[in-house]
């Protein structure tokens, strides 16, 4: 019994200090690192909010968000900067990590600004992906075509 109480005191001290370090009060911004293999879009930049598409549903990230690791699905990431501007980026896939210290790392396989997308090209890409699915003869080819369709549908939706 004494061993249990000692262990509980040690654990409760760890949780108390972790809570105190977390610092929920007076946090108005978070630090964002947003990159793809080809470019860095934000490098430890202070932002107010981030909206991300994930396979568990789209969600918003605010300062002092609970630590989270999520997989990004194809769609639009919206970054709300400190000056009030909202910038939108299309991501094909990736991950988002939200840390206890209000830092966020968003790593995308591909990321482009939404205003640089072309609706006609996105529709053509979707049509090609659908044709690939129809002509696919192996399970691997079908899976690759299905992924292309998912990304292309998200591209078309982002353009509209």
TrEMBL record:
Stretches assigned to the F1F0-ATP synthase delta subunit C-terminal domain: 117-158
Primary residence: mitochondrion
ATP synthase F1 complex delta/epsilon subunit N-terminal domain boundaries: 30-111
Matching InterPro entries: ATP_F1_dsu/esu_C_sf, ATP_synth_F1_dsu/esu, ATP_synth_F1_dsu/esu_N, ATPD_C_metazoa, ATPsynth_dsu/esu_N
Coiled-coil ranges per UniProt: 119-146
Record's keyword terms, sorted: Acetylation, ATP synthesis, CF(1), Coiled coil, Hydrogen ion transport, Ion transport, Membrane, Mitochondrion, Mitochondrion inner membrane, Transit peptide, Transport
An annotated GO cellular component: proton-transporting ATP synthase complex
UniProt-annotated location(s): Mitochondrion inner membrane
One Pfam match: ATP-synt_DE_N
Quaternary context: Component of the ATP synthase complex composed at least of ATP5F1A/subunit alpha, ATP5F1B/subunit beta, ATP5MC1/subunit c (homooctomer), MT-ATP6/subunit a, MT-ATP8/subunit 8, ATP5ME/subunit e, ATP5MF/subunit f, ATP5MG/subunit g, ATP5MK/subunit k, ATP5MJ/subunit j, ATP5F1C/subunit gamma, ATP5F1D/subunit delta, ATP5F1E/subunit epsilon, ATP5PF/subunit F6, ATP5PB/subunit b, ATP5PD/subunit d, ATP5PO/subunit OSCP.
NCBIfam families to which the protein is assigned, alphabetical: ATP_synt_epsi
Record PANTHER family: ATP SYNTHASE DELTA/EPSILON CHAIN (PTHR13822), ATP SYNTHASE SUBUNIT DELTA, MITOCHONDRIAL (PTHR13822:SF7)
Role summary: Subunit delta, of the mitochondrial membrane ATP synthase complex (F(1)F(0) ATP synthase or Complex V) that produces ATP from ADP in the presence of a proton gradient across the membrane which is generated by electron transport complexes of the respiratory chain. ATP synthase complex consist of a soluble F(1) head domain - the catalytic core - and a membrane F(1) domain - the membrane proton channel. These two domains are linked by a central stalk rotating inside the F(1) region and a stationary peripheral stalk.
Family membership: Belongs to the ATPase epsilon chain family.
Protein name: ATP synthase F(1) complex subunit delta, mitochondrial
Gene of this entry: EOG090X0JDB
């Amino acid at each position: 019994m004494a061993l249990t109480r000692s262990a509980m005191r040690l654990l409760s001290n760890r949780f108390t200090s972790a809570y105190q370090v977390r610092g929920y009060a007076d946090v108005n911004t978070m630090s964002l690192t947003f990159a793809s293999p080809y470019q860095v879009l934000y490098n430890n930049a202070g932002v107010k909010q981030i909206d991300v598409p994930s396979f568990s549903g789209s969600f918003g990230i605010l300062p002092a968000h609970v630590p989270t690791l999520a997989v990004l699905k194809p769609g639009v990431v919206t970054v709300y900067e400190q000056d009030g501007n909202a910038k939108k980026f299309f991501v094909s896939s990736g991950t988002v990590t939200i840390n206890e210290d209000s830092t966020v790392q968003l790593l995308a396989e591909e990321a482009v600004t939404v205003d640089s997308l072309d609706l006609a090209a996105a529709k053509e890409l979707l049509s090609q992906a659908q044709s690939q699915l129809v002509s696919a003869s192996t399970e691997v080819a079908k899976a690759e075509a299905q992924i292309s369709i998912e990304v292309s549908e998200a591209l078309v939706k982002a353009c509209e």
